[in-house]
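Retry 2 of 3 after timeout on previous attempt. Resubmitting structure tokens to design endpoint.
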């Protein structure tokens, strides 16, 4: 065996372990805080670890996939370290680690497909793990000292030896021993992460989730007439419809802004998500006796003007980020940062068209008795637990399945 290759494999495993640990931390941070504050590796909409860590694909068996990655790299590092420090020939141990790396390569290919073609983003943390898996595969193979041309023969002989058949492998695979060792690492890892999730409130039983989903379906339907002028995110022709009545000075609306749409990214082709203004401000909402949020109507008209300039959703996010100390000057500053002419934008904000649009939104909410914000409806049923990402994603998946069965 080549010891240098084993030490190189250990270094690759450490790279993977650190990356997986960071991704695990990010998953828990997103669950606790939402996505208002981007992480260090959220560079843009297309290079964004947060999108991956917020998706339903980031969990397996109720545990962050990244944590399973931590266990995987810890197990391989342990096997490689044991072989590197041993005075005896540990080809069986190195072989076990190498075959694990083969599985890691295959799983990386699946995750890369999800990232690139389903979520349509690049994840820096994921790329680091892909690189670690490739390096593990190469270094562990190099440690075995097998010629590249004999790789197929080695795999065949190993398989024959595992099943007790005669082969030219030259050593006992000791599969059970290595499986027990690796299994112990994953079991300890599962116990540890379960304790962390229980203390942090990040876990939910499948029974509890199923009951909440069932309760959603038992609610009565509300007739919401979709206004084609409403800003829409996702697929405008999708059969699954999410409508949010919201306003820009409401603290809970700010939470919704950074806890709903980001969790729906994986369903972008199957859902249409409408934002409807319902400002709690008597300058445009006649049901309000006092200006609870004195700049909510102004912000709503500004968002209307941003929509007319083709930049609604980014402006929407910036308005919510500017919620503290919001005033007219602050809102106009967001427009100026985009290079829009101040006087032209101000003319739009104060125009009858902008005011009429906001009042139409309010009337749409009044028809279904909206009394507070944010209020969300998924396919006509009120979405109560929108802050729970697992619940939200489970509901959307259910509605997508229903729509496909109905041929919509």
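Retry 2 succeeded. Sequence:
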């Amino acid at each position: 065996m080549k010891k240098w290759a084993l030490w190189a494999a250990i270094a690759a495993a450490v790279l993977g372990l650190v990356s997986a640990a960071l991704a695990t931390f990010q998953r828990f941070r997103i669950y606790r805080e939402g996505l208002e504050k981007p992480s260090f590796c959220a560079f843009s909409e297309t290079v964004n670890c947060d999108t991956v860590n917020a998706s339903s694909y980031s969990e397996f068996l109720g545990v962050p996939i990244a944590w399973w990655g931590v266990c995987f790299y810890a197990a391989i590092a342990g096997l490689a370290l044991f072989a590197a420090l041993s005075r005896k020939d540990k080809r069986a141990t190195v072989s076990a680690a190498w075959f694990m790396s083969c599985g890691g390569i295959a799983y990386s290919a699946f995750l890369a497909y999800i990232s690139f073609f389903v979520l349509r983003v690049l994840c820096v943390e994921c790329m680091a793990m892909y690189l670690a898996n490739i390096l593990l595969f190469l270094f562990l193979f190099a440690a075995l000292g097998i010629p590249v041309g004999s790789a197929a023969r080695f795999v065949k002989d190993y398989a024959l030896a595992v099943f007790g058949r005669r082969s030219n492998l030259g050593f006992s695979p000791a599969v059970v021993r290595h499986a027990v060792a690796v299994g112990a690492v994953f079991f300890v890892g599962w116990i540890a992460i379960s304790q962390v999730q229980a203390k942090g409130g990040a876990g939910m039983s499948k029974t509890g989730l199923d009951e909440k989903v069932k309760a959603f379906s038992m609610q009565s339907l509300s007739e919401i007439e979709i206004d084609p002028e409403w800003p829409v995110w996702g697929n405008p022709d999708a059969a699954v419809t999410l409508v949010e009545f919201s306003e820009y000075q409401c603290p809970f609306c700010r939470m919704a802004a950074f806890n709903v749409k980001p969790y729906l990214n994986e369903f972008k082709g199957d859902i249409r998500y409408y934002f409807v203004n319902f400002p709690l401000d008597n300058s445009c909402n006649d049901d309000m006796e006092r200006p609870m949020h004195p700049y909510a109507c102004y912000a709503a008209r500004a968002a209307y003007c941003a929509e007319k300039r083709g930049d609604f959703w980014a402006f929407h996010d910036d308005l919510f980020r500017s919620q503290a100390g919001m005033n007219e000057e602050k809102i106009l500053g967001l427009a100026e940062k985009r290079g829009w002419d101040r006087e032209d934008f101000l003319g739009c904000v104060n125009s009858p068209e902008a005011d009429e649009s906001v009042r139409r939104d309010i009337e749409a909410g009044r028809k279904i008795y909206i009394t507070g914000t944010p209020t969300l409806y998924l396919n006509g049923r009120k979405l109560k637990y929108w802050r729970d990402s697992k619940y939200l994603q489970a509901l959307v998946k259910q509605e997508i399945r229903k729509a496909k069965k109905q041929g919509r």
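Attempt log closed. Residues 158 and 326 are 68 Å apart (CA to CA).
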